[in-house]
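Q: I'm a student working through a structural biology exercise. My instructor gave each of us a protein and asked us to get a predicted structure, then write a short paragraph describing it. Mine is Stage 0 sporulation protein A homolog. I'm not confident about reading structure output yet, so if you can add a plain explanation after the tokens, that would really help. Here is the sequence I was given:
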Amino acid sequence: MNIAICDDSTKDVELICALLQEHFDKNGFIGELHTFSSGEALVKAFAAQPFDVVFLDIYMEGMNGMKTAERLRELNPSFSLVFITTSKDHALDSFSLGTSSYVVKPIKREDIDRAFFKCRDVFLKNGRFIEVMSDRMKRRIPLHKILFMEVYGKEVLVHTSTETIKTSTPLDELEKMTTASFLRCHRSYMVNLRYVEAIQLDDFRLRNGSLVPLRQRGRSELRDAYADFVSDRLFEVSL
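A: Happy to help. First, here is the predicted structure for Stage 0 sporulation protein A homolog. I'll explain a few features afterward.
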């Protein structure tokens, strides 16, 4: 897990790093800490390599925390955000930025632990992801958010629950990064079976209404694969 700490107070940055490292050592968790003293520096680094968790001070010189968070969400919406602040005056505004937690100064160990536990749970729940290049930026897309992927000309469109991402990474390569819940149902399509509502004569119907076509040959195998997936899911629920 890659974690960024951004605060123009060197003392607070050092304290957060120390408390997080203590948390890692105590709970056997592995994480990389990256520190920044300005929103501008964080945005530049984030554009090159998104972080999984960002601890961000709201009141900073130059680009403040709210503006920095907006820029980060534009670059990549899939990360946990923890605001570091002297008050909760911006609580309502920060809600739209998908804030995971608040840590109010003076910083306390229990507040850092509580905030990180929330972020860690999200990270573990999201599990695996694929990394693709999109608009000359590296994007990390959690597998659980992907509905389906389709070849579109020389690109692949990755349809997620919140957006559609274009990438030049071939579908054959993306298939190697996926898990058992993904099915190559067509030369140009791959579907996440977790989002399938029903299998029809010519396509899968997803819960959001999207239709993903089935290849002409081997449709019985596709139907069997879907039936096996549903059966396994029902078994998991019954345990």
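A: Here are two points you could use in your paragraph. The two ends are 30 Å apart (CA to CA). The helical segments are 10-27, 39-48, 65-75, 91-95, 109-126, 171-176, 219-238. It's a good idea to check both against the output above yourself.
Q: Great, thank you!
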